[in-house]
Design a protein that fits this description.
The chain is built from five helices and nine strands, in the order ααααββββββββαβ. The chain is globular and about 55 Å long. β1 and β2 form a beta hairpin. It is of the alpha+beta class. The longest helix is centred in the middle third of the chain and has 16 residues, at about 85-100. The protein has a five-stranded mixed beta sheet, covered by helices on one side. The protein has a four-stranded mixed beta sheet with strand order 5-6-7-8, with helices on one face. The chain has helices at about 20-25, 45-50, 60-75, 85-100, 205-215; strands at about 115-120, 125-130, 135-140, 155, 160-165, 170-180, 185, 200-205, 220-225.
């Protein structure tokens, strides 16, 4: 989400992805009435991810587990079918978890800028570092969808508004920290894995957005790199 208007250090421990990924598999909203009886092209992979018996065959229990995951993350159609979108979300979660506490292992986010917020679009991860020292994260984020991509490159936070409301989409953008035109860090009430993505902003959970608000200030650097899957 974005807004075209422009206006003019606490060190925290590492926040891994284990907790977010555990929550991702927690209780889901009420399931849809229909449930697919067909095995999907990613049946075995999805079964393994969900801790189901890996036999490549769709069972009623398999369908309900897949459907609960789809409902949790706003994946449609939510009929319990192990298709490419569902597996894509799970595969991304696996890749995020594998990063562990070394998100800048490849050295792509600058270490010569002091305090900087990094955004890896490819893995949909963000973190804050100070030089080469990790300050907070990595945490999952939700960036711009196809046609509304979060723009890459080195930016600076130029305006912060804790109770911002978008003038374009007329939706709340709490803890907004703008770094490129209408693109900002801000919290949303959606799953970080909800496809297809934002309208360009870097969406965060409320907990993450509050931490970013406390750790960053106007003039701090932001570096965005990579390419979001599907864009």
């Amino acid at each position: 989400m974005g807004d075209i208007r422009r206006r003019g250090a606490v060190v925290l421990g590492v926040t891994g992805l284990v907790a977010p990924l555990t929550l991702a598999l927690g209780a889901a909203p009420a399931q849809a009435a229909s449930c697919s009886t067909q095995a999907g092209p990613y049946q075995k992979q999805v079964e393994k991810f969900l801790g189901r018996p890996v036999d490549g065959k769709q069972s009623t229990a398999d369908c309900k587990a897949i459907q609960a995951f789809q409902n949790k993350h706003g994946i449609t159609p939510n009929i319990g079918y192990a298709g490419p979108v569902t597996w894509g979300v799970m595969d991304l979660m696996n890749k995020q978890k594998a990063v562990g506490s070394n998100p800048n292992k490849a050295g792509k986010c600058p270490t010569n800028k002091g305090r900087i917020a990094c955004v890896n679009l490819t893995l949909q991860l963000s973190w804050i570092q100070d030089g080469s020292r990790l300050v907070y994260g990595p945490v999952p984020v939700r960036t711009g969808r196809n046609g509304y991509e979060t723009r890459t490159g080195l930016k600076k936070i130029y305006w912060r508004h804790i109770n911002h409301v978008s003038t374009i989409y007329n939706v709340p953008m709490p803890y907004s920290q703008f770094f490129d035109g209408g693109q900002a860090f801000h919290s949303v009430g959606l799953s970080m894995w909800n496809p297809p993505g934002s309208h360009g902003c870097v969406n965060m959970t409320t907990t993450t957005a509050k931490k970013y608000w406390s750790l960053l200030k106007n003039g701090d650097d932001v570096f965005v790199y990579g390419r979001k899957p599907g864009t």
